[in-house]
Amino acid sequence: ALPGHLLRGLLPLLTVFHLERAEHAARRAGLSTQPIWRKLWDDVMKTRPPNSESVTCWRKKFLETFFSNVLHGVLDVSSDWRLNDRHFSPLLHSSPHVSQLTLCNMLQGAVELTAEHNHKVLENLAGSLRILKFQHLLSCDQSIRRSLVLLLHRLIHHGSVSQVSMYSWPVPDTVLLVLILTMSAGFWRSGNALPYHSSPCSLCREEDKAQSQEVSQEGAERGCNAEQEGSGGENQKRSPKEADAHMNSVLSGPRSPPLQNPVCEETSSEVPCGHTTIQDSSSPHSSSEQLSCHPIPRKTRRRLKPAVGRKRRCLRRSRGHYADPEDLYDFVFTVAREDNSGLLDKTRTTEGENTENWTSSSPGSPCTGQAGCKKRGGLAGIFSLKAAHRFRSVSTLELFSIPLTGETCRTLSNLLSSWVSLENLVLSYNGLNANISCILSGLRVLSRHPECRFRVLRVSDMFSHMPCMELVRCILSALPQLHTLSVSFDLKNQLEGSRPEANPSCSEAEIPESCLEVLEIRFPREPLHAAFLLPVLKASKSLQQLSLDSATLPCPQELGLLLEVLKECTPNLKKLSFHDVNLADQQKEVLLLLQDPGLQEITFSFCRLFESSTAEFLSEIINTVKRNSSLKSLKLPGNRLGNHRLVALADIFSEDSSSSLCQLDVSSNCIKPDGLLEFTKKLEGHSQQRGGQLPFTQLRLFQNWLDQDADTAQEALRRLRALCSVVNDAWDSSQAFADYISVM
């Protein structure tokens, strides 16, 4: 209730505890606490946060980082008087502001968060945390894995975590990796290792109780109705099998049934890769938009319909799964060290039925190189998942720099096949090679699920197992519902001759119409043939963004052919990007692209545009852009513009221009402070001629030589910021030049 002027003077004197409590009062008084939180960051963290320009709330930024630093023991709260308050519990009071958290090394953070004294902290995180990251993990003992199981169960299965990311794990602990993947997919075997002496967990128990009451009530109502209608005799007409199933559904109560090997269902014989998969419950609770904490009830389970009239014999299942007290981590630990052949159910097929794999030519089957995935279970195995319950799962999975063995890929493929809530999958530098076929086989099965939400796939690696365009065609053939596809490789192959030849069945097969909107391809210095890209573009009528990186043009006419293909096949294309593609001799095609009325953003990044050009070419570029009213963004990083070409580009915004260009990127173009100042002055003149109505809103200047004359650079930047937003960095050009010389 303090007056605004008193509150303004009081806020900087408050501890973090009282500043947090005064937030609402300050807001009511029209006061912003952002400068105070920013100063707290500078004083306590003593580092400049990455992308500080994009920080919208310093209060959240500070408290989230503060939570992480305290949890990992890298910040002493007694180091600053504003943190040292007897009313202030660091983890408890900052946890509601934590939306992403990173656990690393020996998972000490998981042990701390699952300790009984941090019960309230964990409850807060269950409501606020959206992104859970693991980085630089090390092998850990069983007690730490136990804590991790509890943490994942609370934050994913009964929480709000929608993304799990793992980074930099050169020698992954297979048991730990499979455990994280399995629980991220929503699987868990409850047992006697739960916190606070509760088994099963308190939330599971409450849900079980509520669902048991519902089942009992429904059973009573059915019994009453049956008695009133005199239908008691109909129960006797049930077959023994139906009666047994009915009794089993009542006795099993609220808990979801064990996940079944799909060979027990009526499945298609065209399951790629020949390996068994998990048939997921078709429940809206699995979607990322409405992710429920509840296990999926039995009544929502659906069966895959048989394809081409073939069925597989059902394997008899044990009914004793619920009595097993083992936890998932114990089970994975055991299975990972035993021979898969002794643990996995054998897939029985009807007599004469052929096993299919990725090299099959059945309709719609994805294709691969010479190596497909074998008909074997994954590391965790079908058997380990049969006894697991299905809970809420995440919608985004990211694996960066984590080697995945064939066994781990089969396990991941098995999980992916029923992961209906999954929308985004990022696999980066995992050494997949031929195992990419196994991953795609699981995704292909997933894509057939009626509630599949999978839309984004990003695959990048050091070596490519097959030509990039062949892989793109295989992926789109298997996953026509993809909206975004990114394929990136650094090198063609690890050893000369190790990569298989192009698969004819893949190259010749027609690609079904896809929903693709974004396509990004980074070629490992492969030739870019328009003929190979043509089938992909024909199937992608909805394509809005295309990025081609590190490709080589086999002949000067190839780019012209590509432009014809783009014009014919992609009427909705809005963004086109070329990176590290030599366009020095493609001046005519560059001008054609710049005058395309459909494109809103064009990028020529490190394309050597002006390597062999004349002054007339630059003038033609400027005049073409001036006449194009649809182009909003032009990005020219790494093209050796220099000062004189930058100054000339200012004429794009002259009084006689009809350009609507909003963003110009001239990063890495050898621009010096005096050139930037001259560009600014010219831009100011055009602005005055147009009455201050420039469409230009942003200039990007990363990695230019602005440190050579700091005073001139500061004046140019100050005057530029009066006209538009300027995004730059403090780049040391002398050090960069020294680094360049050192590797020559």
From TrEMBL:
GO CC terms on record?
cytoplasm; nucleus
Protein name, UniProt field: Leucine-rich repeat-containing protein 41
Mark out the compositionally biased spans (Basic and acidic residues): 235-245
Comp. bias (Polar residues)? 355-368
Spell out the Low complexity composition-biased ranges.
281-292
Region of interest (Disordered), residue spans: 212-311, 345-369
Highest rank taxon of the organism: Eukaryota
The regions listed as transmembrane in this protein's record are: none
Give the signal peptide as a residue range, or say none if absent.
Answer: 1-22
Per the UniProt record, the source organism is Sitta europaea (Eurasian nuthatch)
Source organism phylogeny: Eukaryota, Metazoa, Chordata, Craniata, Vertebrata
Q: Where is the composition biased (Basic residues)?
A: 296-311
Q: Which keywords appear in this protein's UniProt record, sorted alphabetically?
A: Leucine-rich repeat, Phosphoprotein, Repeat, Signal, Ubl conjugation pathway
